[in-house]
Design brief:
Radius of gyration: 21 Å
Strand order of the largest sheet: 1-2-3-4-5-6-7
Number of strands: 7
Helix content: under 10%
Distance between the termini: 52 Å
CATH superfamily: Carbohydrate-selective porin OprB
CATH topology: Porin
CATH architecture: Beta Barrel
CATH class: Mainly Beta
Shape: elongated
């Protein structure tokens, strides 16, 4: 668009996923009673996705309270890096005074932290209050979009 040349065509995109979960400590008789660590890493070709690198890690602890063995506490950390191609495009838009792809500026990377507690309220009903804190929401510096704290509740009903 900026050069007047025909658009470049790319072939051969790559996406790689690696995930894991491992129980580190068993604390009771039920299948999930214990401390489990989980994680994931995703790599995308920079022209394939909004993210180029996505990294997530967390811990789940179930069965720590004998009377409520199905309850679970969780902690998670997420990091992502925006595709360098997208960041470059946003920088060029900014430099040439074009309407921005993302109104809050050039995106780079961001992080989120989550703490939740899953309550097995009744057979098939789970209530999960959670707290999340976002650093660089949208992948832009906090001078453009302030860091954010979010509290919420998820309710799962299986029937």
């Amino acid at each position: 668009m900026l050069t007047g040349l025909p658009p470049r065509q790319d072939r051969g995109r790559i996406q790689v996923w690696v995930t894991f979960d491992q129980m580190l400590m068993r604390t009771g008789p039920y299948l999930n009673d214990g401390l489990t660590v989980l994680g994931a890493y995703v790599y995308d070709s920079s022209d394939n996705s909004f993210y180029q690198h996505f990294l997530w890690g967390g811990m789940l602890y179930s069965g720590f309270w004998a009377e409520r063995h199905a309850d679970q506490i969780g902690l998670g950390i997420t990091y992502y890096q925006v595709s360098p191609n997208l960041s470059r495009t946003e920088s060029l838009e900014q430099a040439f005074g074009l309407p921005p792809t993302y109104v809050h500026g050039v995106q780079g990377h961001a992080m989120a932290f989550e703490l939740n507690y899953q309550i097995a309220a009744y057979r098939g009903i789970v209530i999960q209050p959670e707290f999340e804190y976002f650093l660089r929401p949208g992948g832009v510096p906090s001078s453009h979009v302030p860091n954010a704290a979010v509290a919420g509740v998820k309710v799962y009903v299986n029937f």
